[in-house]
Amino acid sequence: MTTLSPTSTPAIVPRKKVNLLGLSRVQMEQFFEDLGEKKFRAQQVLKWIHHAGVIRIEDMSNLGKALRDKLLDIAEVRPPEIASQQDSSDGTRKWAIRVDGGGLVETVLIPSGNRATLCVSSQVGCSLDCSFCSTGKQGFERDLTAAEIIGQVWLAIKSYDAFGPGNNRVVSNVVMMGMGEPLLNFDNVVAAMDLMLEDLAYGLSKRRVTLSTSGVVPALDRLAGVSEVSLAVSLHAPNDELRNQLVPINRKYPIAVLLESCRNYMAAQSDKSRVVTIEYTLIRDVNDQVTHARELVELLRDTPCKVNLIPFNAFAQSDYRRPSGNAVQRFWQVLVDAGYIVTVRTTRGDDIDAACGQLVGQVVDRTRRSERYRAADDAQLITVG
Ligand code: SAH
Ligand code: SF4
Question: Given CB 3.0 to 4.6 Å as the disulfide criterion, which of 65, 143, 190, 363 pairs with 104?
């Protein structure tokens, strides 16, 4: 007969530590208040992590030994892991980032003149299934945590060994245009964007942080009350019939409702001169005709905006094709003649694109994301490829 030893102890379930990397300033202050500590501790820890790049709590020397021991017990500062890195001769750097559970997301840094734009992912996969998007084809796996989102900024700076004064020379702009729909991961994206803007973290100006959405209108309305980042909207069609096919969420929130929400977002900003960026992926014989451009001119009349044209980037599971340079030129001309500011991705023979498909794992840049981000970057002036 087996008897239980009186000394046997129940299995210890490890407590999940709080990852301090993803806490916004307000959340960090609350965390320290709950520990019975003063607010300035939050400021010290934010500076260690985001200014100095220090993630070992033992090394946060101004916290005092007792507090450090307490923190080591309940907290950690844990960035996601880099699964692979690719460098292009034009300076573009791409990472596949491995997150808890094994999923991979992509982060891309695109230097341009004296600035560099980091394109950050918000979800593993995406549930919205836009017909021209490879992320949509993967389906949705999960939301990234705030630590995994801001961790992409942290890792980019770390990879250049550039923590300390001048962080923002390595990452001067952030665009939420990687994998996923940021507004479907609202709280984590807002916490991470707060850290991008926060002086005790990355201190970027609100003009230099851009959220791109396919049009989750209720969440966009909510964002207007809590954030001042720049807004980009993935429109891709000048009427509902066509947009319903390309961007299925349009069936729920049609164009008129979406544009009204964009205008409200802009009206809520203290700086009234800001405009929404309209992203328009040009797909051959689908939405790239002059008639579409004319319809777009009328559609956007009442919405303060600029337009980013993105020639479609082909990928294996898609039958869509990229329009000819002439078609892009014609489309662009119609908008310019109507007085719009229009940017177009420049065509380059990028060696990093030649390396597409060479990343380890399932993250393959089939859509040549780095080009899309260039198109999103203000530095790209009116150039037709
Ligand atoms: N989910 C958000 C942000 C990520 S997608 C959104 O949809 O806005 C970032 C941008 O890349 C969007 O404008 C998207 O429509 C565009 N895009 C996606 N796949 C593309 C492709 N194959 N070619 C060109 N642009 C693409
Ligand atoms: Fe999702 Fe954006 Fe891709 Fe649409 S374009 S499937 S919203 S990531």
Answer: 363
Residue type at 58 in one-letter notation: E
* Closest residue by Cα to residue 167 from 220, 221, 116, 102: 116
- Residue 89, SS3 per DSSP: coil
Assigned token pair, 287? 């939405």
Kindly state the helix (H) or strand (E) to which residue 46 belongs, with its residue range: helix 40-46
Sketch the domain layout of the chain as residue ranges. Answer: 18-76, 81-373
Predicted model pTM: 0.90
Same-fold call for 18-76 versus 81-373: no
Q: Does residue 81 carry a catalytic annotation? A: no
Three-state DSSP at 175 gives strand
Per-chain mean pLDDT for the chain: 88
Distance 241 CA to ligand 2 centre (A): 18
Spot the catalytic one: 29, 106, 181, 279: 106
Which residues have CB under 8 Å from 6's CB, separation 6+?
none
- Say yes or no: CB of residue 210 within 6 Å of ligand 1: no
Q: What CATH class has 81-373?
A: alpha beta
- Distance, first Cα to last Cα, the chain: 82
Please state the separation of Cα 72 from the chain's center in Å: 30
Q: Is 310 in the pocket of ligand 1 (CB under 6 A)?
A: yes
Closest ligand to C-alpha of residue 369 is 1
* Percent over 70 (pLDDT), the chain: 85
133 ligand 2 Cβ < 6 A: yes
What CATH code is assigned to 18-76? Answer: 1.10.150.530
Please give the full DSSP string across 201-234, using - where no structure is assigned.
TT---GGGEEEEES--HHHHHHHHHH---EEEEE
The Cα 351–Cα 88 span in angstroms is: 6
CA 135 to ligand 2: nearest atom: 3
Residue 129 Cβ inside 6 Å of ligand 2? The answer reads yes
Tell me if residue 356 is catalytic.
Answer: yes
CB atoms near residue 9 (< 10 Å): 6
**Backbone conformation region of residue 215, classed left if phi is above 0, alpha if psi is from -120 to 50, else beta:** left
Please identify, by atom number, the ligand 1 atom nearest to the C-alpha of residue 320: 22
pLDDT tens-place string over residues 310-364:
999 888 889 999 999 999 999 999 999 999 999 996 533 244 442 222 233 334 4
